[in-house]
Amino acid sequence: MSRASGTVxxxxxxxxLGFRGSRGPILLAMMLSMAIIAMDSSIISTIVPTLVEDxxxxxxxxxLFSIYLLGMAVxxxxxxxxxxxxxxxxxxxxxxxxxxxxxxxxxFAWDMTSLIVFRALQGLGAGAVQPMSMTIxxxxxxxxxxxxVQGYLSxxxxxxxxxxxxxxxxxxxxxFWRGVFFINIPxxxxxxWLVWTKYHERLEPKRHRIDVAGAVLVTAGLGLVILGVLQGxxxxxxxxxxxxSVFIAGGVLLAAFVLVERRAAEPIIPLRVFRSGIIxxxxxxxIAQGATLIGLTAFIPTYLEIGSGVSAFIGGAAVAAVxxxxxxxxxxxxxxxxxxxxxxxxxxxTAFVLAGAIGLAxxxxxxxxxxxxxxxxxxxxxxxxxxxxxxxxxQSSVPWGERGVVTGTVMFSRSLGQALGAAILGxxxxxxxxxxxxxxxxxxxxxxxxxxxxxxxxxxxxxxFGISLAMPRERPTGDxxxxxxxxxxxxxxxxxxxxxxxx
Length: 503
Fold this sequence. Notes:
It contains 16 helices and five strands. It is an all-alpha fold.
């Protein structure tokens, strides 16, 4: 495989953790990149009336959300492997470029079908940007620094998920829905310029054998499974022939993928990485984290707005409490896992998530925005102490040549968890609403349905906590910050031998 070499940057006055050091522009690029893909996951939700009035196709508008998430999720494993093979920089730039072109095209969409196609293209770009942002941070920061920096990225994702609908509401109020796509242009250009000029990898050239069969099988197989989860109970019934066929076809393709990967010279997903208990636990934790988060962001705003009569701003602010706790806890988690280990820190974090989820379930029948905000704050704190250490431990357990795959696997698991959580919790909500007469505008109906959803979130949080107990006790080994050449006056002299990472 390729060898990455360069300089491991020491913590000095000119290269500090933050935005003024030599790594600052790269970190800023990663945060900008994460912001745009997170915003586009939710920004359309508040412009639907204006958009449908202009383009028509109301019955098809849910695909604007599903196709984006689908395109992003299924391509993560492929991009992650390509980054381990050819380097992070070209894959990151390709992802930003695809997302930029797709955003421009979406801004000029002429009907609902064309907009759905361009949203799918946006998802294909986002599938590269999301894991590459996390992987590059894992490359250029030491294990001691990563908790705080990953906390930055996580908080950006969470904040953008709330800011997105607010921006969408503004553009909808202005009657200019196309602005939600055009706003991506300057952000993409700024992020691409920073990556192009400030981030430099040195890779020894080597001929590679691209696992085309594996890439096709994993993309198609995951695509069908996630499609079945996203559309089950919406576009078709769960027990309908099309639903069953989609899941069976997806399962067959994934089984074929496993067989191909066992024989591939350079597999898309080296199956040996799953021999590590740390990676397995981090991936399963990711599924539970994604399912728990979607239970908060998808249901709490409506629950508070209809159930207690608060404004949309207050409902969104209650969920935003997750973003207050997450980065704050992530900042301190680094100190804790260096002293007590990844397992202890993750267990403490999942315990906070469980406590907040139980509080939400208990208080569900009595909607109060400040009580919901406190529960969300506790859960955000828990995610800061569990999600970040789990990801850092997985990254730190493998060398540079597998770090992209491992990061992509954990990020994909979170996306899968969101899809599964949306499907399962949505089914719970719909079932309760149907049993109460089907009136979705009745405050009592919404409160009862949401309370049932919060019980489901608490059950998922309990599973989340149980999974953390299975994390291996040993501290990951083999973590060496990847050598990356960064333009900075502080880089002097030759490369130290310990700055080399071999894949």
